Amino acid sequence: MLTVMEFTLQRSLQREPTSLAGLHLENRKKRTAQPSAERVLKAFSRVTLTILKDREGRETGRWLTPLSAVQQDILYHLGLERSLYSQLDIHTT
């Protein structure tokens, strides 16, 4: 699965042609058109979904970490809609 993700992302970046910045922890401005699956996964490592529940255990709300620019770019180049991510952030009462 990681190989398919890496291939799809790299092929999309080559077609545009463009590159991604923000995947290198040591230099956030460094750009790459051949990101590794490991770097892509690390870009999403701080994403969290917080689910709030009342005393009875019923879900009362959710809060999802907003996507960064590089995360949005990755989803775009993988052919995934941002709405797929935002659907996880469903607010209930």
- How much helix is in the residues? 25-40%
Query: Main sheet: which strands, in order across?
Result: 1-2
Low-pLDDT segments, ≥5 res? none
> Beta-strand percentage?
15-25%
Describe what is shown at a glance.
This protein is α+β, with helices and mostly antiparallel strands.
Descriptive report:
With 93 residues, the chain is an alpha+beta fold. It has a domain at 47-93. Helices cover 38% and strands 16% of the residues. It has helices at 2-15, 37-43, 69-77, 82-86, and strands spanning 20-21, 31-32, 49-53, 59-64. The strands form two sheets. It has a two-stranded antiparallel ribbon with strand order 1-2. Strands 3-4 form a two-stranded antiparallel ribbon. A hairpin with a 5-residue loop joins strand 3 and strand 4 (59-64). The radius of gyration is 16 Å and the shape is elongated.
Set down the secondary structure blueprint:
Elements: H1 2-15, E1 20-21, E2 31-32, H2 37-43, E3 49-53, E4 59-64, H3 69-77, H4 82-86
Keywords:
elongated, alpha+beta, 93 residues, 16% strand, two-stranded antiparallel ribbon, 4 strands
